[in-house]
Batch of 2 targets.
Target 1
Amino acid sequence: DAGITQSPRHKVTETGTPVTLRCHQTENHRYMYWYRQDPGHGLRLIHYSYGVKDTDKGEVSDGYSVSRSKTEDFLLTLESATSSQTSVYFCAISRTLAAADTQYFGPGTRLTVL
Amino acid sequence: DAKTTQPPSMDCAEGRAANLPCNHSTISGNEYVYWYRQIHSQGPQYIIHGLKNNETNEMASLIITEDRKSSTLILPHATLRDTAVYYCIAANNNDMRFGAGTRLTVKP
């Protein structure tokens, strides 16, 4: 398995509070991704990073921000959590963007916003 | 990304081969066929991917039709631990779109 950890693994928070999720990799892969998974929607891309301090929006980026100050860490921040952001969040990494390459996923963070 | 169609569920007897079909009739020439699986609420696990040739690794085999409009993932000797949701994706690496997948249940 790819060396990807996510923290925390579970979190319960209240509406309006800020939340930061961390993805840490030991593979030195350049590309990192944040997805959310909800029933009936599969996995949807929130943001991705193509290098240190280089990030871009995905399909469902509203309400989320990201930062990558080191190759190994990609942070996802919910500035003011809402109940609609209750979900399971997965981080993924990829060495390249080549079509022959692929993404490897972390174990996930289950976030509940009350 | 090309849209894929998979049956919502399948059963397989333990020890038998599990053959999971996927249709991707709108796949473009530079898109690969990727297969992942997700066991319970764990992160998606990469299984295999290919462009046009059949591929095999320690987990599975991938058979892609000559016109590339469909493919089949083969788990040669399914075990109970292979019970999972299997996702077929036709895409480039940087734009994965996961659909609903096929829920495979391996029965004793």
Note: The first strand of chain B starts at residue 9 and ends at 13.
Target 2
Amino acid sequence: NAGVTQTPKFQVLKTGQSMTLQCAQDMNHNSMYWYRQDPGMGLRLIYYSASEGTTDKGEVPNGYNVSRLNKREFSLRLESAAPSQTSVYFCASSSTDRVFNEQFFGPGTRLTVL
Amino acid sequence: KQEVTQIPAALSVPEGENLVLNCSFTDSAIYNLQWFRQDPGKGLTSLLLIQSSQREQTSGRLNASLDKSSGRSTLYIAASQPGDSATYLCAVPSGAGSYQLTFGKGTKLSVIP
């Protein structure tokens, strides 16, 4: 039982390049999330998927797109990377129960955009 | 808009001391509150989730309390150990019925041997 896994662990991009961050969970959770963590700003939600087939914008969605490929997988795409997207990206998942909505996080992807 | 504040931002204590970390939030219409631990360069580990109907939740040496009416939660760590050194974050739903979490900026704890 691996929990939430993310690939890659590290990535360096040049401005304008594109890439996709992958996330998978094996806990049979319905909901999945993408966050970014920046010094001084804390964790901020980029996009989330409350259930398979749905996606919604979070606090900082500009410059990103997401795909909920199936119940297990939720990817984050940067179409044209910018230095402001240098950050640590975390994927998380949870059940759909609003009362007991415990979120579990992956190990993160450290992205640098030059 | 939900706002979460954690005080202090950093805390240094000698090994063996009991300590309390504080979390406050502005919108009390929440179903739960979650405490996390983050080690340097790592992801977040869920420590405790308190449902709004509960007042306390315990896991080992950790005890978390929730007072919805005052918008406060505390995380009590008993008999601290150097291995407890990490950043502790609290998070609450961004609004009534929301799946989104709003995080505090964390308290960085150092336990000195």
Note: DSSP finds no helices and eleven strands in chain B.
